[in-house]
Design brief:
extended; 321 residues; 5 strands
């Protein structure tokens, strides 16, 4: 557990005064970023053989704002891995002890090494050098098997080579990782979803987008993509459900409106739901019409004001002469 001196040194880090930084006005406040440790006392054994042992856990911590920080455990290879959790800065002061030497001598070099491996792998994949990329991603995964970027990357190389069985294994790993669906990985997430569909892995696509919706159900694009996957396996009623949910989130979501309209024209909407769809499409059309009229009116008002200002300016110039 952290002691008074640990807390005092952390106070200096948080306040931006580490290394003798001036504390007066104009001092640059630096956010906390580094390795910290916590200790937990555990009881081992029973009866007269009971003994206490201390479990020490290392965490990589990055401050997000004045009140909270993101904490992630280190794995056996000394890199941040596994689920992240939010802690308050007060918790950081009270329960975590800074480990600056361990960070600089062991953790930081490992993080840099992993970053280089991932950069190399991504570069090879971008050039179509998929076998070399696969090797580099595997090296990265030996360091951190839960690394989202490495898992997406190697999964994409398999999908690009049409190796569905290998991609299936990676898919199974990715859907269990909450971090795979975070905003930071949005580009890779979209690429992987598209590749699943191109490889006709439609059932996996459905599971993939359903998992994403579990974590963020208020994204109309996720609903739309799930609808496309459901359409491919001919689950038209469920496909329509997702499109209507997308429109309930964003009534002017153009792709969803077009998709619903197309389903209607192809007679793929159950008869008992046609009226429901007509009402929704009519509402979206009316919203679009009103929006267009409002925009045209705003343009007209702006043009009228511009002409009036120009006339006024000419008159003012004439009076000056």
């Amino acid at each position: 557990m952290s002691n008074r001196n640990d807390s005092a040194s952390l106070e200096h880090i948080i306040s931006g005064r580490a290394g003798g930084m001036p504390s007066g006005a104009g001092a640059r406040v630096e956010k906390v970023r580094g390795v910290f440790s916590t200790q937990e006392i555990l009881r081992v054994g029973t009866g007269t053989t009971t003994r206490k042992t201390v479990k020490k856990t290392f965490w990589f911590v990055e401050q997000e704002d004045d009140n909270k920080a993101m904490s992630q455990p280190l794995n056996s290879n000394y890199v941040p891995s596994g689920p992240k959790k939010i802690i308050t800065m007060e918790e950081l002061l009270e329960k975590y002890a800074p480990e600056p030497e361990f960070y600089m001598n062991s953790v930081y070099p490992k993080m840099q090494e992993l970053q280089r491996e991932l950069d190399n792998a991504d570069s090879h994949r971008a050039k179509g050098e998929n076998f070399t990329a696969e090797y580099e991603y595997k090296v990265a995964l030996k360091v951190d098997e839960e690394n989202v970027r490495a898992n997406f990357g190697i999964g994409l190389t398999y999908l690009q080579r049409g190796e569905a069985n290998k991609a299936e294994d990676i898919f199974g790993r990715l859907v269990k990782l909450d971090a795979a669906f975070e905003e930071d990985h949005k580009h890779l997430f979209n690429d992987f979803g598209i590749s699943l569909r191109k490889n006709k892995m439609y059932l996996q696509s459905v599971e993939y987008y359903e998992r994403a919706i579990e974590l963020n159900g208020e994204d109309e694009n996720l609903r739309m993509n799930l609808a496309r996957a459901l359409f491919e396996i001919k689950q038209y009623d469920k496909c329509l459900d997702q499109l209507l949910k997308a429109l309930s989130i964003n009534p002017r979501h153009e792709n969803s409106i077009k998709f619903v309209d197309w389903l209607k024209k192809k007679n793929l909407i159950p008869k008992e739901r046609v009226l429901e769809v007509d009402v929704i499409l009519g509402r979206e059309t009316e919203l679009s019409r009103r929006e267009t009229e409002a925009s045209a009116l705003a343009d007209s008002v702006a043009k009228t004001a511009a002409v009036r200002d120009a006339v006024a300016a000419k008159k003012a110039t004439g009076q000056g002469f």
